[in-house]
Amino acid sequence: MQDQDKIPVFLSYLGFVGFVPPFAAYFLLAKSPYARFHAQQGILMTLCFLVGGLVLGGARWALAFQGVSLRVVYLIAFLWFILFIMCNLFAAVLGLWGRTWKFPLLHRMIRIAPPLV
Predict the structure, then answer these.
(1) Is the alpha carbon torsion for 11, 101, 112, 36 positive or negative?
(2) How many CB atoms are located within 10 Å of the residue 54 CB?
(3) Alpha helices, H only, the chain
(4) What is the distance between the alpha carbons of residues 39 and 29, in angstroms, rounded to a whole number?
(5) Which of 1, 3, 79, 112 is most deeply buried (CB count within 10 A of its CB)?
(6) CA 65, CA 91: separation in Å to the nearest integer?
């Protein structure tokens, strides 16, 4: 890892702030394969978080119409968000240390997905 890769690697894992940081890291800042790997992984982590949020939102609506207590859904959504932030922070720290850690399911998606550019 070079010094110029630190900013894109850090921005890659700020998906909990919004879509802009991982996409900016990939399209504008990442020049090396190391930084691009982290940017791809950050984008996929953000997309997985949003898909999980949509599933939990659908479960909330389905249970609300049946009159079931929503406390369990809210607890799972809260734990999903905490897990997402912890995984992002873990990957960002490892990335800034010059290491890569491939998330088991996301790594397969990165190999299958075509390059974004």
Answers:
(1) positive
(2) 10
(3) 6-12, 20-24, 33-66, 71-96, 104-112
(4) 10
(5) 1
(6) 39
